[in-house]
Amino acid sequence: MARSSKPGSSRRWLPAAVVPAVIAGGVVVGTVQAGAATDLPDKTPQEVLAMAAGTDVRQLSGTVEQTSQLGLPQLPETEEPDSGPSAAAMLDLLTGSHSARVYLDGHDKARLQVLDRLAERDVVRNGRDVWFYSSRQNEAVHALLPERTAKEAKESVQDKSRDDAGYTPESLASRFLEAAKPSTRVTVGEDVRVAGRDAYQLLLDPESADTLVDSVAIAVDAETGLPLSVDVRARGQQEPAFELAYTKLSLGAPDPGVFDFTPPAGASVTEHTVPDQAAQRAERNARDEGADAQHPDGKATKTGDGWDTVVELSATSLPEGWADSPAMAQALRKVDGGRLLSTALVNVLLTDDGRVFAGSVTPERLQAAAEGR
Predict the structure, then answer these.
(1) CA distances from 323 to 190, 337, 363 (A)
(2) What is the per-residue pLDDT for 9?
(3) In 3-state terms, what secondary structure has residue 327?
(4) Which H or E run includes 242?
(5) Residue 153's Cα: distance from chain center in Å?
(6) Band of the pLDDT at 31, cuts 50, 70, 90?
(7) Whose CA is closest to 175, among 44, 28, 313?
(8) What are phi and psi for residue 329, nearest 5 degrees?
(9) What CA–CA distance (Å, rounded) separates 160 from 145?
(10) Model confidence pLDDT, tens digit, residues 38-53
């Protein structure tokens, strides 16, 4: 198999991982479709919130389905050959319907298989080894996570244990619930069944005047507290704008073999170096003030609170040339100060000076954040 050590190549994979996080980090919400009728013991919103916050399910196999109606234009049928799954993949995850298989076993084993037409995308973590693979391009990226101290490992489990699989109802729900405080009316709706399991329906109604979100519904498993579905409704739309739900779910340890990954013969493999936390801290401390210092290690910074949160990304954290791809060129429109990607639930502003602002807010709110207002 062909191998490369160009660290920049791994950035073409960022959209597949970043888009769900951007959506969930204060960007999306809705109303769950009830399954077969069920009748559970009554619980208060606070009790259901506590169940979701306290869930400790770390072993499961399941299938999740995502449906989006965000008002994006039809994407081009093809991308330029060398563009890879960059801007097109980013927009693809925000449109239409997608199915994925999810496997979890503890905090350091996870696999996500996004099933495309006649192809699939895989994200696999097995201990320190992490693989990203696209069968359409037959390309893989491999990263070896640095060894961590016991303290760092504990903090990682506490802070990020729900993000291991990324593209799951639990990961999205946890971010929505963080965004929901304090400007949200929280109630419990009708009981529902999701993936054959009884669940409480937690309803979130933002009280912000600036957010694009009308309401969010989260189905919380009555037995384990595991979020089973997230359903989002945008203001002014009759149909849900975004839905993510388990359609099949089995609790218990998956077959260990699903976490073993070997690139197919002939695959192009890029080795990506992940700096350890001590080196990252030293680098941050040594940086001068400036644009890169505002976005250490390419991470996002936030302004605002709750549903009004605006995320600012470093331009260096996104794939090179992604905004000029055919897919993005068709989706972006010119506005004062830059170009705008507008959907029913998410707006993204690319400023003329190279910055990126995103949020579930109006374009005017993004422009104000870009101007420091």
Answers:
(1) 43, 15, 18
(2) 38
(3) helix
(4) strand 242-251
(5) 22
(6) very low
(7) 28
(8) -60, -35
(9) 15
(10) 789 999 999 999 999 9
